[in-house]
Design brief:
Blueprint (H helix, E strand, L loop, with lengths): L3 E9 L4 H19 L4 E9 L2 E9 L5 H15 L2 E2 L2 E2 L4 E8 L2 H7 L13 E8 L8 H19 L5 E14 L2 E14 L6 H15 L10 E4 L15 E2 L4 H4 L20 H18 L5 E8 L8 E5 L8 H11 L4 H8 L33 H7 L1
Parallel strand pairs: 3-6, 9-10
Antiparallel strand pairs: 1-8, 2-3, 2-11, 4-5, 7-12, 8-9, 12-13
Helix pairs in contact: 1-2, 4-5, 7-9
Amino acid sequence: MSRTYLFTSESVSEGHPDKVCDRVSDTIVDAFIDGDPYSRVACETLATTNRVVIAGEVRGPDIAKEQIEELARDAIKDIGYEQDGFHWQTADVEVLLHSQSSDIAQGVDAAGNKDEGAGDQGIMFGYACRETPLLMPAPIYYSHKILELMAAARKSGEAGQLGPDSKSQVTVRYENGEPVAVTSIVVSTQHVDEALSSEDVQGIVEPYVRQALPAEWISAETEWHVNPTGKFVIGGPDGDCGLTGRKIIVDTYGGAAPHGGGAFSGKDPTKVDRSAAYAARYLAKNVVEAELASKCTIQLSYAIGVSKPLSVYVNCGGTAVVDENKLETVLQDLVDLSPRGIRTHLELNKPIYARTAAYGHFGREATSDGGFSWERTDLVDALKSAF
């Protein structure tokens, strides 16, 4: 690519209303999987002024409504909500979970000679590129990083004037396909002191923005928009109703890659919306790490009740140094892309999901307890050998 262009991505903090809901839903997924690794969970959360509603379908251990309510309160407390309009201790929490549909279960469950099928139809995408150390597009990677640093400073007391609800947006200038500068930075953050002006808030958050971004990318020409509407005291679910699964672009690649439309949070790993998207990222990241391409998009598709993917598509945007048709075959030889195969290979039947609910499901470090296993690059040697 020879032209110069701008590309923008946004992120939202763990205190954003939708992310509060994602966190509660994934906390409940973890609780069921912790009790039974093969639990089925489809949990949706709604949050508004001093009210949380948890609904959906489950199959697994008998967890009392009171325990689920306590899990929700603990999650909200950890995020940091102790406000008159939304408080972890006083919010009304309603639990409306019920048993999974037997019609869905019969299509998904293994039986006789039938392997476990996909929990739904759909398409899922994975992506990786060389723009950042963790092989993520630069705009979303740095948008997340800004908010992570702000949240850490808020929780430590270093930036105690900030509230939990915040958003960031980074516009990056590309030259010849490479990110070279930031042309604009947007940060909107809740604050607890009503007297703070936009300029005051910029003074608080600017050090964290500069810490997050490459220093040479910020110049005198970079535009800053911090709390551009002015006062931002009423935030979180008290200011804007939240719902699970509404930040799917924030959760993935910031718009730099296609999205199949399915949300992740609140779903156990038999749901291919979640597990196959993780598998697609895993494969794409390994392709790029193996230096077979400088960027890679992978699409997988499934039908409900059918175990094998209907299609596997690889597109490296003209950067591949190997045949993409062969790469499609090799990837399927290396990893069983059935729902059961994905869950087994990536060890997804573990309580590892609450931590994914904010700052992106991708571009994170794999952890020793199995968290973010889809970020591993353990296929590199096999991929190189195949070519």
